[in-house]
Design a protein that fits this description.
about 220 residues, alpha+beta, binds phenylalanine, 6 helices, about 30% strand, 3-stranded antiparallel β-sheet, globular
Length: about 220
């Protein structure tokens, strides 16, 4: 029942931040992190994550909601081996009755098995995002050493691959959904990061430099 949802790359500040319970003084809004678009009073920016599609989907679609949203996102990061100012994420969002942390856990487990192999397991660590409560960082057991510890997992046996959590009741309510009756979960992962792990790519700039030898290695 999952559907692919879409949203604009040139996004309003409201969808990108306010609707996700990210307060006006949150550091993620700063010019150092975010590409704002002139004129300033238009409150437009290049979306810094795919999470604004959460609110767009909640406002326009019927419940229960099962969506994934792949797309391009922008941050004013310095270009280096693991950062580019433009990259891709995949967002997931489920909202319905009786949606629990167990549903989130089961979904994440399935995703990592499909992406990294049947034998992989997940580990959830407490974290913080303004739009989910509780929030978690999701680790996958290392697909290279199986958890024993190696250079890929930096000897920890685990690799961090995404952020996730239960949709904050305030976010549900901002979209007019009754948070007493409905609940939901969301997750977001970086596409390049997953591809780099899976295919042993050590420099993210390869995705964007247009050198044909980069794509030919996957033939
Ligand atoms: N949007 C968050 C980020 O870019 C990831 C996230 C998505 C976290 C959904 C929780 C739920 O860091």
């Amino acid at each position: 029942g999952w559907e692919v949802a879409d949203g604009p790359e040139l996004e309003s500040e409201w969808y990108n931040f306010d609707a996700l319970n990210i307060k006006p003084d949150h550091p993620a809004r700063e010019m150092q992190d975010t590409f704002y678009v002139e004129p300033k009073n238009a409150h437009l920016l290049l979306r810094t994550h795919t999470s604004p599609v959460q609110m767009r989907a909640m406002l326009t679609r019927e419940l229960p909601l099962y969506i994934v949203c792949p797309g391009q996102v922008y941050r004013t990061d310095e270009l280096d081996a693991t950062h580019t100012p433009v990259f891709h994420q995949i967002e997931g969002l489920v909202v319905g009755e009786n949606i629990s942390m167990a549903n989130l856990q089961g979904t994440l487990q399935l995703i990592v098995q499909k992406m990294f192999g049947q034998d992989r397991s997940i580990r959830l660590r407490p974290s913080y995002f303004p739009f989910t409560e509780p929030s978690v960082e999701v680790d996958v057991s290392c697909f290279k050493c199986g958890g024993a510890g190696c250079n890929v997992c930096k000897k920890t046996g685990w690799i961090e691959i995404m952020g996730a959590g239960m949709v904050h009741p305030r976010v549900l309510e901002m979209s007019g959904i009754d948070a007493e009756k409905y609940s939901g979960f969301a997750f977001g992962l970086g596409q390049e990061r997953v591809a780099m792990l899976r295919y042993g790519i050590n420099d993210i700039r390869g995705f964007y430099q247009g050198d044909i030898r980069f794509s030919q290695q996957f033939k």
